[in-house]
Amino acid sequence: MNGQTGKHLAHISTILDSVADGVFTVDESMRITSFNRAAEEITGFSRNEALGQRCCEIFRTDVCFSACPVEEAMKTGQDVTNREVSVLDRRNREIPISVNASALRDADGRPVGGVETFRDLSQLRALTREMEAKYTFHHLVSRNPAMRKLFDILPDVAASDVAVLIQGDSGTGKELFARAIHNLSPRKDKPLVVVNCGALPEPLLEAEIFGAKRGAYTGAVDDRPGRLELAEGGTFFLDEIGDLPLSLQVKLLRVIENLEYQPLGAKRSRKADVRFVAATHRDLEQMVRAGNFRQDLFFRLNVIVLKIPPLSARSEDIPLLLDLALERFNAKYGKKIRGFTSEALSFLLNHAYPGNVRELLNMVERAVILNHDAMIGVKDFPASISGDPSPQLARPDGKRPSRKDLRRILEQYGGNRALAAQTLGVHRTTLWRWMKTAGS
Length: 440
Prior knowledge:
The chain is an alpha/beta fold. It has helices spanning 3-17, 37-43, 47-50, 55-59, 69-76, 122-135, 145-159, 174-184, 202-210, 227-230, 246-258, 284-289, 295-301, 318-333, 342-350, 356-370, 383-386, 403-412, 417-424, 428-438, and strands spanning 22-27, 32-35, 80-88, 94-105, 111-120, 136-137, 140-141, 164-167, 192-196, 235-239, 260-261, 270-271, 275-280, 304-307, 339-340, 375-376.
């Protein structure tokens, strides 16, 4: 080595030591040939300890013997970029890092080693957790001012025992608010019982809510406890109360006023020690004017009203929800998808989300299930949606979509009625009725 070459190598070493990312190189046998200062700081191993060692003995990552980034780059000739792995430092602490790797070649283009750069993600992860904690309240997530105001008053609402009416479009998270009220209340150690008022025909719904004695109706071969009885001491959540038939509205009003109810076929009334929370995506005041909802029941439920804004009114929440959704579904399906391509992210940030948060979660879950790459792209979204950033999947007035829209949504989810109903923000029974009417 002449003096000029030695000076050149010294300059390279100085440059690498000034880089904030860890950098190391290996020869063909995967032994470390250079190790910069940032690599020392992240791993806890000194340069002298690392040089000459096989890189797996220093880094001890979760992919060293299955999908080593440097080895992959050397074998395939393709660069590895932004791969997230975990390493164990000298004190056996797990550190998340982001890795880039490339092959090193001689003058003839033959691989003679590899280079890897890596970035410590610990601070970024800690900041992400801090941000999530700051904007998370009992499984509710938002940085929107209107939502934050709701979070602020929830403890006071929960501390009382008055009825609460939660209003919001389908898919906005009304049941999550009901659960937060219950979990913050003195009744938190007792059951939270949910009944969907639009899920069953009237006779079955009555028995579901109030219970039935043996022989009260055809098929009632045993005494059947109602949801009111099951909720004793806790919270009774009536979801989509706007779908409750008028005849049952009268009976429910009596329960709220007198805290008594009578199961079907029973000779005596029962006491009801429950706290009532109701939710709807309908305009109950308009329904009262139209004669479809009892005014006295509306006033009984309208003591405290929580109005949840649609996702379209709180677009600042979309990035936060996307990150949380990706983390959740990666864990659920054992995936390691790092994020979204710029095109996919642009689409997701500009999508109208007529199905609100539920639609966003469904889209990310579907993409995670179908994706086999490191990043989610626009190709992972249904063509019927990604081809139009703002499709009107569900009518804003809650009425049945057109036959064409119903068929398109069912095709989008491969005929899965549960997912189609979630996207439309309705119960599967409602979707079934729409399909029957449309002849789908």
